[in-house]
Every structure is written in structure tokens, then in C-alpha cells.
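User: Just a sanity check before I run the rest of the batch. Below are the C-alpha cells for the first item. I only need the designed sequence back.
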């Protein structure tokens, strides 16, 4: 899936340790050597949260801004953030929790995107 780094191209992501590059998000998500392992929320700006991936070839963890994936979501969004309330199951507080959240929370859309990324669902 990856290609040797070429200075004239603007790839979606480059693995600094091994030099592997993915020209597009679709290439990145299709790569069987890349596995989503977590999400670190930024509760002030959800799109600045980080999706974490392991690149199995070189055993490196890659972080990519959630904003690089949020266009995959087309469902409802909620205004209120429920993090820390009794309605919140706390998924966003645990970086290795990958399940979508059942709460009607502002953060729920990112959890749905994470689920799509984990399961390699790519909309065109």
C-alpha cells in the first residue's frame, strides 16, 4: 500500500521511522499493516482530538487529527457535551476505548467516526 517518500507529493501520512507513505486516506485505511488503537479527545475542540494507529511494519504509533476523518460522518450532531455527567459512559476518557458512544452528546459523532475508521468503512 505504501510508497517510498517522494518530495514532490503531498501524502496523507508519512511514517517518520520507516519512511512509508500513504498518498490518500483511502490508502491509509486500506493498509492491513495499519491498525487503529485509540482516540485521545480534545474536549475544547473535538476535531483536534487524535486518532492513534499502530504501523505494524515498524511498530510505530502514528497520531492523526480527528479532523482528517470527520467528513466520514453524516448523522445527527448534538449540542450538549455530556462528558463527566451521569449520562456519559466515559468512553472518551479512555484512549483505548474504541466503541461508539450511545449518549446524545456533542462527542458522539467522533465516536461514530472512530468506529468507521476501526472497521475500515470508507465512504467516497
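Assistant: Here's the designed sequence for the first item:
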Amino acid at each position: 500500500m505504501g510508497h517510498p517518500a517522494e518530495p514532490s507529493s503531498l501524502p496523507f501520512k508519512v511514517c517518520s521511522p520507516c519512511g512509508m507513505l500513504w498518498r490518500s486516506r483511502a490508502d491509509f485505511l486500506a493498509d492491513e499493516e495499519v491498525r487503529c488503537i485509540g482516540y485521545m479527545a480534545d474536549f475544547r475542540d473535538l476535531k483536534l482530538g487524535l486518532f492513534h494507529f499502530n504501523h505494524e511494519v515498524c511498530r510505530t504509533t502514528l497520531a492523526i487529527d480527528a479532523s482528517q476523518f470527520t467528513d466520514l460522518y453524516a448523522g445527527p450532531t448534538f449540542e450538549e457535551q455530556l462528558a463527566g455527567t451521569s449520562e456519559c459512559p466515559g468512553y472518551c476518557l479512555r484512549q483505548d476505548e474504541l466503541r461508539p458512544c450511545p449518549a446524545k452528546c456533542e462527542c458522539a459523532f467522533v465516536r461514530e467516526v472512530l468506529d468507521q475508521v476501526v472497521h475500515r468503512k470508507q465512504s467516497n
